[in-house]
Input
Amino acid sequence: MAAEIGPHLKDGAIVSDVGSVKAAVARDMRPHLPKGVHFIPAHPVAGTEHSGPDAGFPELFINRWCILTPLEDANPTAVERLSTFWRMLGANVECMTAEHHDLVLAVTSHLPHLIAYTIVGTADELSAVTRSEVLNFSAGGFRDFTRIAASDPTMWRDVFLANKDAVLEMLGTFNEDLSKLTRAIRRGDGDTLFAQFSRTRAIRRGIVTIGQDSATPDFGRRHAEPPRPMPRPYASDE
Amino acid sequence: MAAEIGPHLKDGAIVSDVGSVKAAVARDMRPHLPKGVHFIPAHPVAGTEHSGPDAGFPELFINRWCILTPLEDANPTAVERLSTFWRMLGANVECMTAEHHDLVLAVTSHLPHLIAYTIVGTADELSAVTRSEVLNFSAGGFRDFTRIAASDPTMWRDVFLANKDAVLEMLGTFNEDLSKLTRAIRRGDGDTLFAQFSRTRAIRRGIVTIGQDSATPDFGRRHAEPPRPMPRPYASDE
Output
């Protein structure tokens, strides 16, 4: 596609792809870029489980981060203009290499998606537990995973094919950590479990503190409306 | 504790524990139950990442499921009275054996919590990616996992110690499924990835359809307020 678009670009134009994997895209684009055109990959880390223009909303990028991965020979003025563009949409901007971006996103986005896709599939294939039981009792934690496991399959297939090395590296570390906890469960080692479960709370607090998630319990999910006036079994209003 | 409470219970009293693991509790309680007292374990599958009385709210149980696991010799009238109690709080009620409950919850609640605790720990221990990068770019999917990984460590340690067998069984299946997807990534097998990623969407749809999660994108998280009047780069209002 870059080969087709290239000839139509004016001298001095800034071209930016917007996507979840960077190193592979930069490598594929580079040979097709006309002289005088600035190519600056960008990745706004924002969005929902829905895709396409209709899934957008005006506040989508506010206080989210947009990562730019300019090539080594990028024009600083062009990078600054693109940064300003994203800041005007409400985003914070950070620059890093494409390779580091792919590693960071492997852990903050790609691995979580792979795990979510896996566990939702696991639950659906059990013979001892029915699908209707999985759905009915999903409020115990499982339903959280189903949201990102409902993301666009085409996009996510391509993410894993394009960012294979970083994802496999993160998977290796994740598997070691899961084995450690599995062993603790098997041996009845409550201290190891308690230590791990206490440590992870700080990360949640950090994310809420910097405004990357809501402090409202349960993501601020709306409570169900009572289907009828609720009885007041303990009220003493006679 | 059951041994201490037992003598104070009136004949015909209904006693119910409320917790996430059933078979071990029933086994431990049984020898201490005075004659004429009905013991009926119950598990309302509802709640948030917060614990304790202050974390409750009036709609907490509405359209959530409460699972009762009466012992084989349970008194049907007592079971019906306890079911009515839960229905008056807005819950749906289902009865099953304690053993089946523990298997169902292992997949819909315990495994998701273990995976979330693991991945949040993995992200925090990487040397190539800083903690501040993990926090800043968490909106790519990771932040979803931090919510349940912020649950009460004492309670969750005890859940894994008490429901060890069912959790280990589910972990075995999960690991097989994760290996299958890892192999597909390593081999560049896009068809296997696409097939898995398409299948899991139906589960999300099912959960939303039966009212166990909101259809609003991103769990209905509130959008950030613009910190200042937003610029209108494309507006033609001059």
